[in-house]
Amino acid sequence: MTGPREIEIVGDLSRLPTSASGARHLVWWGNIGFMLIEGTGFALAAAAYLYLMTQAPAWPPRGDALPGLLWSGLFTAGLLLSALPNLWVLRCARNKDVAGVRRGVLAMAVIGLILLVPRGFEFAHLGVPWHRDAYGSVIWLLLVLHTTHVITDWADTVVIGTWLFTHEVGDDQFADVEDNSNYWTFVVVCWLPVYVLIYWAPRAV
Amino acid sequence: MIADLERVPQLDATWRDAPGLWGFLTTVDHKRIAARYVVTALLLMFLAGMLALDMRWQLSTAENTRMGPQLYNESFSLHGSTMLFLVSVPLMEAMALWLVPLMLGTRNMAFPRLGAFSFWLYLGGVLTLWLAHAADVTPDLGWFEYPPLSGPAYSPGHRADIWAQMITFTEVAALAASVNVAATILKMRPPGMTLARMPVFLWAMLIASIMTILSMPAIMLVTSMLIADRLVSTHFFSPAGGGDALLFQHLFWFFGHPEVYIIFIPATGFVSAIVETFSRRPLFGHNAIVLSIMAIGALAFGLWVHHMFAVGLPRLGNDFYTAASMAIALPAGMQIFCWIATIWSGRPRLDTPMLWVVGFLATFVIGGLSGIMTASAALDLQLTDTYFVVAHFHYVLVGGAMFPLFGAFCYWYPKATGRLLSERLGRIAFWLIVGGFNLGFAPMHLLGLLGMPRRVYTYPAGLGWETLNQVATAGSAIAVAGGLVFVGNALWSYWRGRVSGPDPWGGSTLEWASASPTPAWNLPYTPRVDSLTPMWRDGPLRVMEGLALDRREVLVTSVADAAPLYRQKSAPPSIAPLLAALATTAMFIGSIFTPWAIVAGALPIGAALTAWFWPTRPRAGAAEAKA
């Protein structure tokens, strides 16, 4: 058959809505895809850590100080607490509350910036430079990997916040806020195993 | 009824690209992007094939002086890296980018600009490797650059960095393409195309994409660690600093083995589509084939250590990976039986696409059997790093993936160009390539058993290797000649081939419903599907109307049942993906020389991404001002 195929119209899609939220939205799935990629990256970096740990006679190697608990503890507490306003923003986005998402995204941008302060001190208190030994290399790797995610999501929050305050907010922007909020939850969840590996695994061995 | 002719000019106006160079740089049309991928990858296949021929020339006689050891090392490193990272995987992605929306009857990919970004970044990887080669900074440690050889102590200069960073380019591109393909298949199927009614081709592309997402982070991580060892003196792989060189091999092969199946599984999608159409009956054992692909996808993650049998791992580990490697032959065999059953019980026609499937079946089975042999840790210890392994992986990769790809090229060429390839030239190319390939690579099994190691630039006379090497060289030359006929056919047919019409083969799936070549908007209406072979339904094609004609809009449906959910805006053309890729390229290249490039590069990349995603909506307060 080489001519144009005959057709029969059996339905009309024009009454469908032009947006959706949550897992019904297309971009939600793209977001999940990138979380899966980065989550795999975290898991493999953690596997590299455990591999090196099992090969080493001492962990940390003799002469290396243990990583400091103060700033990392502050960061961890702050990050966990940030989940609360983050969930509140998520709820505002789902309820299509313009004033709520504007305020909430601004708050999350400020919180992200504040969290970078204890994160900076964490690097200073890791107790070993990355170039001393493989132990130092791999804890720096984990911390850099996570910090990259904090900074990326913070920058995304700032851009979305700028947009929300200067433009009319539509359904697609609520979906953007929702995706950004889900991504922050991912950043929080990924930190917990990384925190245990960097700060508690050397103390437990 | 016939499609309403007034829709066409409206759709044309909405979906067309800007004319000229600006349109070329800004397009987000999945077909144009895929065509670029295909043309670039085929050009590289030619270049890497020439390298192979050059190496065969060198090996055709003992103590030949065409190449010295350094040039030989560079040649096989460039050949392998190009074929694996810049040809095989990108070609499979290109086929997905091109065919997935057509087979779904949708207007574009889920994330059109991400598709453009993937290509530009891939091109960055291509230029990184080949411009460096032009500047005589060619990687020379094979396609997997193991430390400590690739570490700072043994590889000064930037050859290893070029290799590692080329990988970063291509893997970011592949990961972006995979998310795009997976989201498109999961969320943009036409109404009625439930998961149970999804053609094998789409299953293959979905599973290959998920495998990419789960495996490629491993190589991104390991090459980043290698660059860190070289650039900022970390000790991941240096035993003196408590690191471990084997960690590199584990992470590399955690990616590397699934990679083989990321290349092979899309090929099973091509074979399934071709076998169905040319046997003129629905695929035998559809569910069995889909489950086999899933099983291969899962098992592929459990056998990476069979690339490392010779490094002295615990015996129990070797036993486990031997068993897992042999187990994967079961689902692979199941698929082959299903294809044979389809051909057997159908009314097969032997046009060139089907001819390639026959070539695939014969060649791939040989490669599969030598795979079962090398899966045995005990035997592999004897065979590893010999020409037996070279023969094996060329049989599975060329026979198992490239032959189906050539068949797919012949099958879908009329859809892309509106013209049929010449069958006569196609048959000549087929026999030259398949015959030449087998003549070239079958003797390598024997050479391997006779003890000829791989990656040697020459060998002394009197070992009994010369005749077999000469046969291998002759076979390679014949296959390359066949490749030239194949490309010549494609070029000649592009202008002179017979006009094909929309559906020259009587295909079973929705891509054959569109005009050939397909217009920018693909299908005039949204199809409604009620079987695995919608084009074989008696009577008219059932469609739905209601998607916007005056703006770019696509239909989003539910994951399992493909029930219509909402209408989604589809991104228009933009220069931002190219700018983002250029900024990323600058950062990747800079980071070969200084870690500060990552910091400095973050700002331009952030700016390009912001431009990319910046929505076009009125300013806050505009509505009030208007009122």
Automatic annotation (TrEMBL), chain A:
Location of this chain's protein in the cell: Cell membrane
Domain Heme-copper oxidase subunit III family profile as annotated: residue spans: 1-203
GO terms under cellular component: plasma membrane
Topology versus the membrane: Multi-pass membrane protein
Transmembrane segments: 26-49, 69-89, 101-121, 183-201
GO MF annotation list: cytochrome-c oxidase activity
Single biological process term from Gene Ontology: aerobic electron transport chain
PROSITE patterns in the record: COX3
Keywords: Cell membrane, Membrane, Transmembrane, Transmembrane helix
Family: Belongs to the cytochrome c oxidase subunit 3 family.
The name this protein goes by in its record: Heme/copper-type cytochrome/quinol oxidase, subunit 3
Organism, as annotated: Sphingomonas jatrophae
TrEMBL record, chain B:
A cellular component annotation (GO) from this entry: plasma membrane
One annotated GO molecular function: heme binding
Record keywords, A-Z: Cell membrane, Copper, Electron transport, Heme, Iron, Membrane, Metal-binding, Respiratory chain, Transmembrane, Transmembrane helix, Transport
Main location: membrane
GO BP of this protein: aerobic respiration; electron transport coupled proton transport; respiratory electron transport chain
PROSITE patterns assigned to the protein according to its UniProt record, in alphabetical order: COX1, COX1_CUB
Subcellular location: Cell membrane
Record InterPro entries: Cyt_c_oxase-like_su1_dom (IPR023616), Cyt_c_oxase-like_su1_sf (IPR036927), Cyt_C_Oxase_1 (IPR000883), Cyt_c_Oxase_su1_BS (IPR023615)
Domain Cytochrome oxidase subunit I profile: 16-530
Transmembrane segments: 34-53, 83-104, 116-135, 162-188, 200-228, 260-278, 290-309, 321-342, 354-373, 393-413, 425-451, 471-492, 596-614
Membrane topology recorded in Swiss-Prot or TrEMBL: Multi-pass membrane protein
Protein's UniProt keywords contain Transport: yes
Protein family according to the UniProt entry: Belongs to the heme-copper respiratory oxidase family.
Name of the featured protein: Cytochrome c oxidase subunit 1
Organism of origin: Sphingomonas jatrophae
Lineage: Bacteria, Pseudomonadati, Pseudomonadota, Alphaproteobacteria, Sphingomonadales
